[in-house]
Amino acid sequence: MSGKIQAIRGMHDILPDQTPCWRHVEKIIIDVLNRYGYQEIRFPIVEKTELFARSIGELTDIVTKEMYTFVDRNNEQLTLRPEGTAGCVRAGLENGLLHNQIQKLWYIGPMFRHERPQKGRQRQFHQIGIEAFGLGGPDIDAEMIMMCTRMWQELELTNISLQLNTLGTLQTRNRYQKVLIEYFSSHRDRLDEDSKQRLQNNPLRILDSKNPAMRELIAAAPLIHDYLDAESEDHFAELKAMLDDVNIAYNINPHLVRGLDYYGKTVFEWITDRLGAQGTICAGGRYDMLVEYFGGKPTPAIGCAMGLERLIELLQVSGYTLDNDPPHVYFILADDTATRAGLKLAESLRKALPYLRLLMNCGGGNFKTQFKRADKSGALLAIVLGDDELKNQAVGIKSLRDESEQETVSWAGLADVLRQKLAGHLNLP
């Protein structure tokens, strides 16, 4: 084999200078989830293909064009998960979490879709998913939207707007689909090929078309709000009233249908105009039929998922920067003997100061080389263990960020001195 092996197209490495921003976003979102009573669940990246074909919809773009599907050595057809809700429902059913229970769950991890890679849309992407089971009223819909709003506030994200719609009950959708079929059939010559395929099987998806040539036709299509039953109208009206009570602004988008077949009643998307064409950063809605469809008892449910890549990109275009976490201390060592003593001393410091970020010099080098490494690391302080210090069971402490003189400290008193020096710099305990 010749040449370098490179990452698969559309699947990117997240490098050390980027991971602090990822951890920052994840920490804030997970902290908010914990405060609202959500618990983490973890389930496999690979599932049986049937799980996604049945839940997402066999005629959706995801299933027909985008899934990473393969046959394993046991001749089973498996798929890398393209989204998280189906796997979460499967895990909940299989482990007895859903029947006659209220569950608030979250998960985090990679998803996979074989799309054309472009800015904001990759073949491996990362999501935080949020699911609530066993609650059928608009109050949980409202709380989930409020919780997302709090996440955006704590991330200090701006230029985000909420789009809201209802797809009604199954009866509503069945009625509305017949109206759409009649409308689009009368304009069949103006439909693109994808829309013609969706016409009989899933006409709502035509409303989700991104083809500019279809825009005028879709804008003139009948609206689902004219065909809602009383249950759907009441649910949507109460949701809007609850959002109004806490001053959460929203735009009603009657053409918002989402890309997956399992949604009904509430659907929503958070969008921004700062990321170009890929402006959706979080989306979700109700899927009250899905648990029963998978063989469980009727269980109301609502969920949403947010794309971490897009959230991080939005942070960055908003001017946010976060430095990597540099070490507090860099340990400079004279020779092999000093290294052995230094390793032992470093472990005692880590035990005494659990928050301490201490970087040992490994790989040798003279003092000049080691001081260059220490400065490049971004550390605040250098600890120096030379021959004289080793004999006296002491170290030298030198600030790397000002011109103050090096001072000598005994091993026994080192932890207390470091605690004092770092508390002044970093407000540490």
Compact summary:
The protein has helices spanning 19-35, 49-56, 61-66, 85-94, 138-155, 170-185, 193-201, 215-219, 230-245, 290-293, 308-317, 336-352, 367-377, 387-391, 411-426, and strands spanning 39-40, 46-48, 68-71, 77-80, 103-112, 124-133, 160-166, 251-252, 266-272, 280-286, 301-307, 329-333, 358-360, 381-385, 394-399, 407-410. It has 429 residues and is of the alpha+beta class.
Please provide a written account of the structure.
The protein has 429 residues and is α+β, with helices and mostly antiparallel strands. It folds into two domains: 19-169 and 229-317, Bira Bifunctional Protein, Domain 2 (BirA Bifunctional Protein, domain 2, 2-Layer Sandwich), CATH 3.30.930; 329-422, Rossmann fold (3-Layer(aba) Sandwich). It contains 15 helices and 16 strands. The strands form three sheets. An eight-stranded mixed beta sheet has the order 1-5-6-11-10-9-7-8. The longest helix is centred in the middle third of the chain and has 18 residues, at 138-155. The model has no long low-confidence stretch (mean pLDDT 92).
